[in-house]
Amino acid sequence: MTIKAIHHIAILTDEYERSKAFYTEVLGFKILAETYRESRKSYKLDLAINGQYQIELFSFPEFKERASFPEQKGLRHLAFAVDNIEESVGELLAKGVDVQGIRTDELTNKKFCFFYDPNGQPLELYEV
Fold it and tell me: Cβ atoms within 10 A of the Cβ of 23, count?
């Protein structure tokens, strides 16, 4: 088997409109398709990052909360590459997003910081 790339990341939300606004208006992802599936009472929103299909945002009427603290097994966070972390953090703060302080990765000497989506999903900005 030869894996070529990550095809997409699926995120489940209980507040669809709020999450849709966050990923499109705050983070600037482009909507590729939005589908309402009546049989599931669920939305599926396909989003592109920098022209590539990468995020699927789902809403489901019945969901279970996922524990994040203390650290749990599974997906820890989702990191987005940025050119200038100070500028990117400034944009998030201007849009009312609570952002943790900028830190430096001790292994790579690259700057990074964490913030959360409306569902509490940990997200990271990582300066490349």
Answer: 22
The pTM is what? 0.86
Model pLDDT, residue 51: 87
DSSP bridge pairs for 13: 59
Q: 35: number of CA atoms within 13 Å, CB side?
A: 10
Contact assessment for residue 99 and residue 92, using Cβ atoms and an 8 Å cutoff: yes
Q: Is residue 68 part of a domain?
A: no
Show the domain range for 121: 76-128
Q: b/e for 89-122, b at 16 or more Cβ within 10 A?
A: bebbeeeebebeeeeeeeeeeebbbbbbbbbebb
| 98 token code pair | 């609570």
Q: Of 16, 38, 61, at which residue does a domain stop?
A: 61
